[in-house]
Write the structure tokens for this entry.
Amino acid sequence: MKTTLTVLLIIQLYGLASCAIKQHYFINEMKTWDKAQDHCKTNYHDLSTFIDEIEEQQFLKDAGNQTSDAWVGLYNRSQIWTWTTGEVATRISWYPRQPDNDNCVYLEKASNKLHDRSCTNIRTFFCMIFEIVLVDQSESWEGALDYCRHHHDDLASLSSNRSMTDALSKITGAQTQYVWIGLRFLAGRWFWISGDDLIFKVWSSDGQLQCPAQNQRCAALDKNTKTWTPRDCEEKLNFLCVLDNQKVCY
């Protein structure tokens, strides 16, 4: 029974930043699609995705410095075109007579349209991060989560060096030394509520606690040491949200 409740709580905590405001970066390095995704996940968030017309317009605006055909975060998974953020693609701006029975997708520079090609081809690529905002009111961790999901998109996941750098620039104006982020300990492990892999880590000198005290199971970003640290989930702190392009931001 306890295990079932824990699993249900994890499912409730997980969120998808599918409506989040994204910033896209052209990476002028030649890689296969898989290696490009690895690079994006380590240094940004993921390969670029744009699931609707509004997101596509913003992506093409950010892609203005593209110098060659470049991979994006769309691939064929079991005969279903799927974005790397998990959404099934319902709107795809294919070039005429595409797709062509391959599994990975790139943006053609000349036409701003999408082509499919073998994932082992070598191309430049686009990475993205989600735009985040500091909320300078103080809430418990769950209060911060509720606020972000109601007014924005979600608590921020700092799963790459780029998102961490962005967060540090935002928290300089925080009214509290510690700022809540979307990192939680549950069922014996730390996890990002966005579902991102916990590979990039910036823990405090105490390190990643494998079994933190019951009242130290929510993570915050320390603006003085620029590291993550376990805190009491009921502590009232400022927090970082992922911005949403479909909600009014307060």
Notes: Helices lie at 2-13, 33-43, 53-62, 141-151, 161-170. The CA atoms of residues 6 and 187 lie 7 Å apart. The chain has five helices and 14 strands. The longest helix spans residues 2-13.
